[in-house]
Write a structure and sequence with these properties.
The complex is a heterodimer of chains A (about 120) and B (about 120). Chain A is mainly β and about 120 residues long. Chain A is built from no helices and eleven strands. Chain A has strands at about 5, 10-15, 20-25, 30-40, 40-50, 55, 65-70, 75-80, 85-95, 105, 110-115. In chain A, a hairpin with a 5-residue loop joins β7 (about 65-70) and β8 (about 75-80). Chain B has strands at about 5, 10-15, 20, 25, 30-40, 45-50, 55-60, 65-70, 75-80, 85-95, 105, 110-115. Chain B is mainly beta and about 120 residues long. Chain B is globular and about 45 Å long. Classes of the chains: A mainly beta (about 120), B mainly beta (about 120).
Amino acid sequence: KAGVTQTPRYLIKTRGQQVTLSCSPISGHRSVSWYQQTPGQGLQFLFEYFSETQRNKGNFPGRFSGRQFSNSRSEMNVSTLELGDSALYLCASSSLGGASTDTQYFGPGTRLTVL
Amino acid sequence: AQSVTQPDIHITVSEGASLELRCNYSYGATPYLFWYVQSPGQGLQLLLKYFSGDTLVQGIKGFEAEFKRSQSSFNLRKPSVHWSDAAEYFCAVGHAGGTSYGKLTFGQGTILTVHP
């Protein structure tokens, strides 16, 4: 099976813009989680989607949002970008309904740079 | 609140030497524990996981980890390190029950450098 894919791999934006990142889970996986990775804060959970529903959300401002489509592909959106949003955004998928104890398989990430 | 601590930010070993990366967790119930590895600019690859049962778990690439409830630890070990093991290693805990869907809490990571 193909792994988790994320597009684009690299992105450069300026402050105030918005950005949309895409994630395609492993075939058959219905749960998608998103994480932000920065040198200062490490890996932090953003949100999780299952069957097009957000079931869990981390402690991030409302500028961060996401959605999931019927084919389980997911997108996350960040509006009004700030310099501090520069990070590696990782998507992970799991197969067993998305329980937090499921094994999550990660994509290669999207590197977002905000200038 | 649940947390994961990796006390060593950076570890340097010689190729062929043994390795132990430390991980301590704080969690009120039975933890579900994972070790992931990340090469520069890449995503996370699962090395091994502990859900229940035998407290010594085997993973890929010759890694193993031992769950010690009394010490709240889940240390990662490898008997002989290869240069290709140089990477950053993350310990994580999953949250059973409730509404903690899809959430892993990660430690801050340990960077492993391997000298030839």
